[in-house]
Specification:
The protein is an alpha+beta fold. The chain is built from six helices and four strands; from the N terminus they run H-H-H-E-E-E-H-E-H-H. The longest helix is centred in the first third of the chain and has 31 residues.
Length: 198
């Protein structure tokens, strides 16, 4: 199975599966060591048991990651297809789980065009205005000023994406960033948002 990158459709479901498989394998090795030590020494009270317990700690940490990953699922394929059809040449990010110190924002789609970012969340717990402010603040901290609107209605979001795709993006003065050689402005915005996403 090809590993999907953050921001692509299907990433959250694949990430969940990979996290559980990794947790299983990381716990399997110490378990096998424990069984082997028990079989050889005829008692579990031996140094191999201590080694197996210590080696299980990273696996236990991975179980926590798998539980967190299990809270999120991939977006509906219909939404993905509609967004792909509407976005034209604009850059898009899918399945972003953005974190701040206070809360977590689940944003299904983000479309980037010049100074504008349009997003959509189907999660009733995600406040679109606060999610948009969080993205703006993070981008501003990296010297990129953006207009960000996170919609909670799919129809309004798709209309905004179509309007972004139909118009020529605002010409934004941009000097290549030494931190991100070879990337255009929209690509840097995309990269920065992926960096704060789970």
């Amino acid at each position: 199975m090809k590993k999907l990158l953050k921001g692509t459709y299907g990433y959250l479901n694949q990430n969940k599966k990979r996290a559980w498989v990794k947790a299983f394998l990381m716990l399997l090795v110490p378990f096998l060591i424990l069984i082997a030590g028990w079989a050889v020494n005829k008692t579990r009270l031996n140094p191999v048991t201590v080694a197996a317990v210590v080696l299980s700690l990273p696996g236990c940490n991975q179980v926590v990651h798998a539980i967190i990953a299990s809270r999120y699922r991939s977006i509906d394929s219909a939404l993905y297809e509609e967004t792909e059809a509407a976005r034209g040449d604009c850059l898009a990010l899918y399945e972003s789980v953005l974190t701040s110190y206070e809360e977590t924002f689940t944003v299904d789609c983000l479309v980037i065009s010049g100074r504008d970012i349009a997003g959509y969340t189907s999660d009733p717990k995600t406040n679109g205005d606060r999610a948009g402010e969080h993205i703006k603040k993070m981008l501003r901290a990296n010297s990129y000023k953006q207009n960000v609107k996170i919609f909670t209605e799919k129809k309004a979001f798709l209309e905004r994406v179509r309007s972004l795709a139909e118009r020529t993006p605002e010409e934004v003065p941009f000097k290549e960033d030494d931190r991100y050689p070879g990337l255009g402005r929209d690509e840097i915005i995309q990269y920065l948002i992926m960096a704060i996403s789970l």
